[in-house]
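Need a sequence for this fold. Nothing fancy.
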């Protein structure tokens, strides 16, 4: 769809100015005092009017073309938005229609294959690695229990426990009989 302006906005005819096609400019001549005697237009006023009309026609034509191009751009943007909306609607419809079918068929097969591969990896190389790490941890715990440092720490803890029990028993006898030197 193209937008067109009336021919009066897009073409300028200088004979219409003189012939009164664009309006009656004779009142401008009547307002001037002095130089014109018969009530007609003097050449200066006629020249200014003609120049003004030409300039107005040129600018009017440019403004009309600008307005037309803006209107065409707006229409093109609206058409593009309508087309994009249609494409989005089609995509949503296709997804709602084919999504469940895909999940029931090919999609289910793909998901099953992924789960199967994950479980076999968990029971295969990953399980072997976990077993090796557990074995290493157990070995370290056994070595730590029989190390000389752990034996010293255990003896120290035993001595402290014996001293504590003796202190409790002495506190009982001291409470009954008083301190014995």
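Here you go.
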């Amino acid at each position: 769809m193209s937008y067109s302006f009336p021919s009066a906005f897009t073409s300028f005819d200088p004979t219409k100015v003189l012939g009164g096609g664009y309006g009656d400019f004779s009142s401008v001549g009547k307002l001037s005092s002095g130089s014109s005697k018969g009530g007609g237009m003097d050449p200066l006023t006629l020249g200014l009017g003609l120049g003004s009309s030409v300039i107005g026609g040129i600018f009017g034509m440019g403004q009309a073309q600008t307005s037309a191009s803006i209107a065409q751009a707006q229409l093109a943007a609206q058409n593009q938005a309508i087309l994009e909306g249609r494409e989005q609607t089609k995509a949503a419809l296709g997804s709602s229609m084919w999504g469940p079918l895909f999940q029931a068929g090919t999609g289910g097969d793909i998901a099953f294959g992924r789960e199967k591969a994950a479980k076999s990896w968990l029971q295969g190389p990953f399980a072997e690695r976990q077993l090796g790490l557990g074995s290493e941890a157990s070995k370290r715990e056994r070595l730590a229990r029989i190390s000389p440092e752990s034996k010293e720490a255990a003896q120290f803890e035993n001595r402290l426990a014996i001293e504590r029990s003796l202190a409790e028993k002495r506190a009982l006898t001291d409470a009954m009989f008083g301190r014995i030197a």
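For context: The CA atoms of residues 72 and 78 lie 10 Å apart.
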